[in-house]
Amino acid sequence: IYVGTQCGGLAMGTPQGIGSRGKANSARPTLITASDGNALGWSHYQWTVIKGPWHMPLTATGKGLPGNLVNSVATTWANHLVVATDEGIALGRLNDGGRNPSLLNLTFEHGRNFVAKVYGLWHPPVHWQAPSGQLLEQLPTEDHTTVAAWQPNPAQGARAGYLWLGHWRAGLDVWQYNADGKIIQRWHIHEPQVGNYVESLRPLKGNAMAVGCYGKGVFIITLPGESKNAWRKAAPGTVAGSNGNNAIIPSEPRAARPPSACELTAMANAIRTQLINSSGQKQPRIVPLPDDWRTEGSWLGRYGKYWIDLAAVCSPYDFVWGTDESSVFYVVGLAIPLAGDEPRYWVQQLQTANRRALELPAPYMQSRVKLYHARLDQDRRDASIDDHGEVCPASAQGPGLYTSLNVPAGPYVLSIYDCNDNGHAPGNADRDYRVDVRVHPPMASPENDRSFQREPRLAMGRVANFVGGVWNRFLVRGPADITVQISRNHSMNTMFNAMALDPLKHYCIPYFGQSVPGGSGVAFAPHLARPWKAAARESGLAAEVEACDGVFRDLAAAGRVAPASVAGRVSDYVLLARVYQRCTASYAASASAVRGADAALAICYWNMCMFRKSEHDEVRLGLTPARKIEKSLRWDGSPLSQVDEDGTKVRRWRSEHKQDHAAPKFSF
Prior knowledge:
The protein is α+β, with helices and mostly antiparallel strands. Helix content is 20%, strand content 32%. Strands 22, 23, 24, 25, 29, 30, 31, 32 and 34 form a 9-stranded antiparallel β-sheet that branches. A 5-stranded antiparallel β-sheet has the order 8-12-11-10-9, with no helix packed on it. A hairpin with an 8-residue loop joins strand 13 and strand 14 (161-167). Helix 3 packs parallel to helix 6 (542-561) and helix 8 packs antiparallel against helix 9. It is globular. The two termini are 40 Å apart.
């Protein structure tokens, strides 16, 4: 299995069998099948990650990957593959038939525009010689390749076929291979025949291709010399297959089955092993977390519970909000300075109800309404900071944005919100950012980021196709002074809407009065433990529930000792949620046991960024969600202080509404 990662190179999984005693047996890979006989996959994979350079190679061709931002992977004839990246393509072959990933032989090719990108570097190499025009003609039209697809032509030979390469701004390349695997003809297809921003490819019969283009719809391309009637429109409910037959469109994937007690026990053992192995090691300071595509601009009570910077909301200033007495010092600047230029503070819509735009803090919003500056039903503002990169050629490096900030002691989640609000407009779709997080240079002022590139890269992220808005998230172990670089990556410009810090733990002060130890894990009130286990026995789920509790206990312990080791185990919470959902359905006769399941589900959903469901379960537990508290705050008429120092506003609201409840404590 080949997996192209967003910013981590190419991952390759080799199936490894499981022997009769549970030991790996690579000679006998085991195929797991469902009760209906359908294959579910191999029992285990051994993964190898192949990475390329972080800086653009200065040669037209070379060995390995040209970059680590992989957009697409396609397999061609036996043991060959094509990797599409933002720095060109890589053509690979497994010399041993796929048994040893270390023998993967990759050769990259830049696009023809890479010459302009070299000359556009902030410090272009001295005495660099551009490749010859003859060599450039053999390269893809553009460096940034968005998608690759292989269309075999078995009538001409085993290696004969067509390689289709979709690009970001240059349309489509098609290379025809003969029976010997040599390129014999090339086509370049672009507007008006096809949109220039190609997103997807689907082979059709007769050497035709369905080409999906951003904002332009779907085009059916038939190559010159092929029969114009070689393809036909598929009937409703079917899709034309590349083998010339119509295949029924498969149904949507079914929900994952709840894990068994044995699988949960194995999960707990894996967490304990990981904790033991990491206890004696130095923990990473920054770890990437899964992106949040669900929340969009509805951040109140979900992000920024410690500190949030709403970029340009009070243009030319930001709006800062938070609940801790320790303020976060931060600085925003251009990554590559332009003479006489600085970041731009934009307000696209002063008032809007669009859910992609960020909500305004309730006291600030109420002040606008009382002063007749806003309507209550339009409680969001579309604002952002950008680097003014639109004045630079697309081939130029930078400018990009730097943000330096200090993170207090303890584990925190750093979140960056990006929304390409006008991403459907021409040119604005060309936004694809790379995010680097590093420790701020020691002994340097927050404004001084010139030695940033010399510091080790601690974590990376990528922001692409973000018209709907995305929260790019990282776990940071404080105290630390860090710098976040958002690279333009040859986009139209660089922008971000907000940056937030949140405690890793769910039930945090001041919202819940008493924090839950460990920061992650399930919270059960002590009086719920007995009915919870009794109901589990009656419903036949005692083993599953006990194993689930063990997983939560181990996750909580790991969260206290080594939070970075378990920060990304979101899939564990997905599986646990399936068990507790089943418990909720089975425990209808026991209200106390249902509350125990709700307490578990609230934590699961929160770790999965399914905040609405988590808040629903908190209400069932008798808790007031942080979001309700945030939305209930009111302006007192005094000059508006942006930061809620030491959480005074939140504590005052809880006191007035007699919400001095403590978060439920652990009880296993």
